[in-house]
């Protein structure tokens, strides 16, 4: 084995795929989450704990080489009206994970941030990520804790939450035959498949990626119109696509997140990656299974 790696928030969408990738590469993988993982693999250890429990985190991190921190509230729209809850879960929870990592003497702390740190959108979710990045950089400066910050873009794929953008549109199309997109059709995203994101997230354990920020957004750029057309084509054209510019969520960016400039981040990409058509097909098949048999 390559040593112990802990994934805080490892029962979730991105975290579970990351845990699987770590296990596949020979790491002794420990998942820490408030809820047991429904995707726990043989050889993975499950620790049920919350990030508000500093002592539980210290115990779980004992002997770890690497700690990945992905836990917290990630639904951007849900954070707009829950500032104190976001501060407790995303900032204080992250502070506890960082402090526990320092106490455990981990080799490196890897923080799951977002491209929204560059923007004025993203509500309190964005604020919590900016604050944690600064906190982590200062833990490195004051105490020598090595870190890597990963700023994820639009991740899609199996196991995604119901509020995940791609999952929401696919499920809506499968269940109702109507895809209502809250925008003009010109919004653009760089989509990255969750398994590609997981691969890159383990690649950065190489020493040269320490104490820096990286952007993981993929290389496949689609407008919302291109995406909805792709979903409709895969479903045989049996989807009524409607755009609703008046209801575009103000928390989300339209063309680019770049407004505010935090510490410089370098983009990293894979030379081989999931084709987005194949990835959308995979997601549609999962949505059909989840919908169950027709009456």
Question: Would you give an account of this structure?
Answer:
The structure is a single chain. This protein is α/β, with parallel strands linked by helices. It has a single domain (4-291), classed as 3-Layer(aba) Sandwich (Rossmann fold), CATH 3.40.50.720. Helices cover 39% and strands 21% of the residues. It has nine helices and 13 strands. It has an eight-stranded parallel beta sheet, with helices on both faces. α1 packs across α7 (194-203) and α6 crosses α9. The protein starts with a strand and ends with a helix. The mean pLDDT is 90.
What is the topology?
Elements: E1 4-8, H1 13-24, E2 28-33, E3 45-48, H2 54-61, E4 64-69, H3 76-79, H4 83-104, E5 108-114, H5 123-143, E6 147-152, E7 154-156, H6 165-176, E8 178-181, E9 188-193, H7 194-203, E10 212-216, E11 220-223, H8 224-234, E12 240-243, E13 265-267, H9 276-291
Parallel strand pairs: 1-2, 1-4, 2-3, 4-5, 5-6, 6-10, 7-9, 8-12, 10-13
Antiparallel strand pairs: 9-11
